[in-house]
Amino acid sequence: MTAHTASTARVHVVGAGLAGLAAAVELTAQGGAVILHESSQQAGGRCRSFFDSELGCRIDNGNHLLLSGNTAARAYIDRIGAQHTFEPLGDAAIPFVDLADGTRWTVRPNRGRIPWWLLRPSARIPDTRPRGYAEALRLRRAGPGATVEDLLRRDTVLFRRLWKPLAVAALNTATEQGSARLFWRILAETMGRGAAACRPLLPREGLSESLVDPALAYLRGSGADIRFGARLRALEFKDARVAGLLLVDADTVTVGPEDIVILAVPAPVAARLLPGLTVPDDYAPIVNAHYRYTLPPGRPAFTGIVGGTAEWVFRKPGIVSVTVSAADHIVDLTAEELRQSLWRDVARAWNLPAAPVPAARIVKERRATFRATPVQEAKRPHPETRWVNLHLAGDYVDTGLPATIEGAIRSGFAAAARVHQGRTPATAGPPAPARPLPRNFRIARARCHENRNQG
User: Fold this and answer.
1) What pLDDT does 8 receive?
2) Per-residue b or e along 292-318, where b marks 16 or more CB atoms closer than 10 Å to that residue's CB
3) Which of 144, 155, 231, 342 is the most exposed place for a label (fewest CB within 10 A)?
């Protein structure tokens, strides 16, 4: 093996998922010399698109819903110049259907942070009362070991039709296990900020076209060095620093005395590379079904499904996609069983023919994200390490958010800020996270006098 050295300080970003891309983009924007190492031949990690030869079209690996309240994701999109790859921001509207009785409703937060919409019966989830929504305040004071069901009553219509579908989707964890603190953070940064934070950000084509390809183009145009097929075998340490990157079937890359390394690899890989690093080690599956189907006009961009096997269904060009989070109960079913059962839910939700069932690609992510339980949350490492020139990035790092696109990008921004500033920033990454907003729920509670047991 030969060693390559550089005469100027560089930042080695290892991993080209969204965390690594966000770190590389931010550092490049600051004028830094960035080398991006990726073990595979494509960037994006779980958040990417690919051509499916069986369906004869491009599909996203999974479904990831971004909202206008995802401030780090929006900053990243602005930085890479990808605004034009998204549909114009529409209304703050989240449609649902309950397959148990066919009830349909749309959650429409109003402008401003005071939730006046809770006072209008026609705007609330059917069969709920305003006082029930104020129960979410309990999450704000959740202790480190509290779960969602410890603080929110599961025997209410509101829990079944709103809190549970939102929590399972955000945490990829069942509500009896999911962290109450992480769920509160999601609510505070989206619904707690009103309509301005709840408008969906929908790619025109796919995840790669909106979040990955523009980032690679930005990096190349800014002079970054992108190296695919660079699988990291080990790190070389010397005097409390990373001194080298030992690659598989390639030359060793020497890390100079002024160089920095950002390790933006999955948690199990980071644990293998770094002695003594504790990371989450319990993972939950996600099942996605992509149907080759052209919808008739009038169907919404996405819909939440209650009372079925499918949980969320998305309309994409020539494709109908379904996602089931925390999918332990179905992940071992055959692809044909999933194709049939999930389409039945889609057909009922969107009034489509139940037969014939369209051709579909079933994607099972058995280790999609760490399970967002209090036990696993306690295992999340801080971004800084005991090696002075090594920082961590990734959705498993302690960002205060569950393993989401927003959390991954925020961790990359935070790592870039450490490099740029030479210290640990006070927040998880630019822009600063939204402040929790309990006051709006207090106002609604003060104005309502319904029976405490209703809703």
Assistant:
1) 63
2) bbebeeebbebbbbbebbbbbbbbbee
3) 155
Alpha helices in 190-244 (DSSP H): 207, 213-221
Average pLDDT along the chain, 455 residues, taken 10 residues at a time: 52 98 97 96 94 92 92 97 94 95 95 90 92 94 97 97 97 98 96 95 95 98 96 95 92 93 98 96 98 92 97 95 98 98 98 96 96 98 95 97 97 94 45 37 36 38
Place of tokens 């990831």: 64
Question: Are 274 and 295 found together in one domain?
Answer: no
d(CA 178, CA 175): 5
Domain count, the chain: 3
Judge if 329 and 400 occupy the same domain.
Answer: no
Strand-strand pairing, 225-228 and 34-38 = parallel
For 87-105, write each residue's pLDDT tens digit: 988 899 999 999 999 999 9
Measured CA to CA, the distance from residue 204 to residue 218 in angstroms comes to 19
Q: Which residue has the tokens 């160089």?
A: 259
Q: How far apart are the first and last CA of the chain?
A: 67
The model's pTM: 0.89
Same domain, 409 and 342: no
Helix, strand, or coil here: 149?
helix
Do residues 247 and 349 both lie within one domain? no
What's the gap between Cα 78 and its chain centre? 18
Give, for 77, the enclosing helix (H) or strand (E): helix 71-79
Q: What is the 3-state secondary structure (H, E, C) of 285-308?
A: EEEEEEEECCCCCCCCCEEEEECC
CATH number at residue 333: 3.90.660.10
3-state secondary structure at position 164: helix
DSSP-derived secondary structure letter, 276: T
pLDDT of residue 251: 79
The C-alpha angle with vertex 172 and arms to 112 and 104, in degrees rounded to 5, equals 55
Quote the tokens at residue 263: 């390790």
Amino acid 146 reads A
